[in-house]
Amino acid sequence: MQKNSVFFLFMGLILQTNQQFAIDNDNLIPLLSHPHKQEQAIKNQNLLLFHPENELLKFFLRPIKFSPHGIEHFFMHTYNHEKYTEYLPYTLDHMIQFLEYGQQHQQDERYALSIIKLFLQKIKGCDFVNSYSLITAMPKLAQNLTPYVQKKEASFLQELQQSLKKRFSHIFSTYSSYFQKNPDAFLEALSEQIAKKTNEVQTQQHIDVEHVRKDILRFLEICMNKLVWSPHEAYDAWISINELAEQSHNFLTKKLINDADALDDIYWSLIHRFCYFIEISHDDISEEIFKQIVSDIYTQDLLLFAIEEQENLITSKKDFLLRKIKNHYAPKPSIEKMPEHNITASNNQPL
Predict the structure, then answer these.
(1) Which end of the chain is more exposed for a tag (fewer CB within 10 A), N or C?
(2) Which of 179, 104, 83, 184 is nearest to 148 (CA)?
(3) 100-110 burial: b if 16+ Cβ within 10 Å, else e
(4) Are the beta carbons of 201 and 156 closer than 8 angstroms?
(5) Band of the pLDDT at 324, cuts 50, 70, 90?
């Protein structure tokens, strides 16, 4: 499948905008024979280069400057811009930049949590999410989120050391006379304090990491519930669904989501979104495309269907998708008599 990069998507938008305001070359030649009209034509051409939509696009594409002034400028003029939710569906580059910056400056999982929440709020306001931009962003998100959820022994020990030093300084300055009189009881109480503090720090770190994983799952599911495709690229849409399933499995491998149940939730989100796409676009999807999708379902080992349902009585993802396809696919006689694959459930029962 040929995927458009974010760069070409934006270039396409720029070209489309310019075409709407382009000057007809045939009409331009007589204009240039008159000095005053020639000057006006040049001004018109210059206006094309500085069209507000083009300038806004360039403005949003600027990398974030991580200085006090740069961060303030980003939030005031980019993040808060009323058009930002029209830009965000095409690239999550700003989110990735924040996560990269946090890694470079040894930020912990609480920083990652704040960044996820920051862009989760904006994604909620987007009308859609471009599937190809999400496919492109997910490996970078996984790479930059992984350090925040890994066990950081050095960070943990440093935090514990600082906390214990502060607490012990207070204890020794307050109870030094008690230590001299009853050292055994003092050390017993001290060891209890160490155990409690160690458990407290470990527990807090675990809670913070679990919150990060939870919000990663929320972020991915909201993005996937907003995916859109062109009905004229229906097979590419099917390919992108499976690519997103593979990328999501990578998140589980890197322990960015908790377990297979979380991954199963993502797979169901992808299935439902693709079924919705079929429902609203089936009139524009050719019979050949439907046949190819059904063939893939039967002949390929797809991660999308790899996780079994929690109960045997629950319709599987594979059967659910096949039934949705049949709703818009079976009424055509040529589809009812598919030579390669009849549309049946995975247990060989007709749908």
Answers:
(1) N
(2) 104
(3) ebbbeeebbbe
(4) yes
(5) very high
Q: Is the pLDDT reported for residue 34 higher than 60?
A: no
Q: Running DSSP on this structure, what letter comes out for residue 339?
A: S
One-letter identity of residue 165: K
Tokens 């269907």 found at: 305
Q: Are 230 and 223 in contact (CB under 8 A)?
A: no
> Residues 71-89: pLDDT tens digits?
999 999 999 999 999 999 9
Pairing between strand 129-130 and 227-228? Answer: parallel
Average pLDDT, the chain: 78
Q: How many CB atoms neighbour CB 99 within 10 A?
A: 24
Q: Could you identify the residue written with the tokens 């020794």?
A: 172
Q: How far is CA 85 from the centre of its chain?
A: 14
Beta-carbon contacts of 315 under 8 Å, excluding residues fewer than 6 positions away, are 309, 323
The pair phi, psi for residue 344, each rounded to 5°, is -130, 165
